[in-house]
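Summary for the steering committee. One of the milestones for this cycle was to obtain a three-dimensional model of the protein with zinc ion bound, which we needed before selecting residues for the alanine scan. The sequence and ligand used are listed below.
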Amino acid sequence: MDLELYDTKSRRVLPILGKSISMYCCGPTVYRAAHVGNLRTFLLSDLIRRTLELNGAQVTLIQNITDVGHMAEDVGGEDKILTSSRAEKIDPLAIARKYEAGFHADLAALNIRPAEKYPRASDYIELMHEMIAQLIAQKNAYIGSDGCVYFDSKSFAGYGQISSNRLDALKPGHRYEYTDEGGKRFHADWALWKAAGERHELIWDSPWGPGFPGWHIECSAMSLHFLHNHVDVHVGGIDLRFPHHENERAQSNSITRAEAVDHWVHGEHLLFEGRKMSKSTGNVVLLRDVIARGFDPLSIRLTFLENRYRSQMDLTWDAISAAHSTLRRWRNLVSGNPQVNPQLNDEITQALNSDLDTPRVIQLLRVIEKNPELTVEEKVGAFLFADQVLGLDLSRQEMNRELPPELAEIMKLRAKARNEKNWKESDRLRGVLEAEGLIIKDSATEQDWEWR
Ligand code: AMP
Ligand code: ZN
């Protein structure tokens, strides 16, 4: 059976066919720490990749790092990285590298497997120049009256198919991306190369004068270059459907003269306290906030898995806390020898292949956990099989450092008994704790424990 995924462009759930799959996932803009909403989208590409691999396919995943050219509408056209650079008084590329390192650390903490390559936009400016030159030669792009190079949206017949936007219905005055696009011929055209103007940092020479790339061209350049002109599965958050992916498709299809991407997959947004998590809304939660509250970072991964990627989900601290306890319980369960039960594995695979129905997989595991007719070994086998995609580190034991509250209470009573030199009571309580699976280690003043 093949993985079937919802394709935003055709609005249908379609199989991903083939044994060698190329994937591209739009990466972070590295002017601030990624919030857990961003991480939900990055997790989506990991789940797709792991499910394809479970089905026996080989996957090549590329994810870009946007370290230049992504303008912020809300900061008056100022480049986000330059704004952060001024605020933090650090060189702009050092800012970008700092947050890029943080991004990789977050991915590792969430068990998101590394992509094949993470190309930085700033390292591939020449590649973008070549693509822009080809688009100008083909009359898909032109040099505007302000010296910037624009893509001629009317030159691409299929514009709007991903997002259902029609060119003739797009209103002038919509701020597509930049605030100062005076030199274009048509309001829906977008900049491929921006003239430097007053800007002195993060600019490069080009055949059209000094400047910097528009945002969309980097994804066309890097996806086509690293994936050899064809992307099987392209992933991003739902907000990227328009204009980013619409513009990327127009560029890439014009270059390859073919449908450059087979499958457009979009993850829905993470909400927090009822609103989309975003820096501008001011309701961001970072992975380090989750860790600082004492939660295993993978409890965030589990809360995401409990919701289908195509639904918005509202994150709460209660849900994270519940997931944290579930993880602890499941890791306790997954400690014996596994035994394969092909029927259970089939059910798990089918749920994953049905447009990544991870909530169903989690539900299946809850039923398996409680099923008295299954042996412990069969349960362990099913949990470990699912964990190849779920990535919850269910075979990990060390996190069980945390004591269940009732045992913690007995530890406290025993400490009190020891303080009062009530050795009889302290020995009795040691017996109770040992019967629960703990090994108690006493020093003159302290008592410590570990799981047997
Ligand atoms: P950015 O770093 O802003 O370029 O965003 C990186 C990725 O995160 C993009 O694919 C966005 O669509 C996605 N994204 C942004 N906000 C959210 C959110 N609240 N929930 C899920 N994905 C998001
Ligand atoms: Zn992109």
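Key point for the committee: Residues 26, 219, 244 surround zinc ion (ligand 2) (CB under 6 Å).
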